[in-house]
Design brief:
The structure is a single chain. Helix content is 21%, strand content 14%. With 105 residues, it is an alpha+beta fold. The protein has a domain of 37 residues: YefM-like fold. A 3-stranded mixed β-sheet has the order 1-2-3. A hairpin with a 2-residue loop joins strand 2 and strand 3. 1% of the residues are buried.
């Protein structure tokens, strides 16, 4: 076990982290009294997660990965279908019109 005071730990942090990585224990002290411990983090997962336990019967159709046809891309980029009208974009013309509450000077 390595015991260091705070000032030494600040000066030798990289070296202490390498020691921890090799498996040693590092205790940081304040006025020779232990106050913190430097320890290694557990290894994290590297590969992708397997989601089949959550959704065992799901399958993705190959067509999902194929590019969209040009007419469908045009619809996504703001086009409209023939004969379709866009309804939710204009402000409603019904109900009382509110006036601004700001005082006029």
């Amino acid at each position: 076990m390595i015991m260091v005071n705070i000032a030494d730990a600040k000066a030798r942090l990289s070296e202490l982290i390498e020691s921890v990585d090799r498996g040693e224990e590092v205790v940081i002290c304040k006025h020779n009294r232990p106050v913190a411990e430097l320890r290694a983090m557990p290894a994290s997962r590297v590969g992708p997660r397997d989601l089949t336990p959550i959704f065992p019967d799901w399958t993705i159709d190959r067509a999902f990965f194929e590019p969209l046809p040009a007419d469908e891309i045009a619809l996504w980029e703001g086009g409209t279908l023939p004969g379709a009208t866009r309804v939710a974009e204009d402000s409603p013309a019904y109900g009382p019109q509110r006036k601004s509450r700001r005082k006029q000077r």
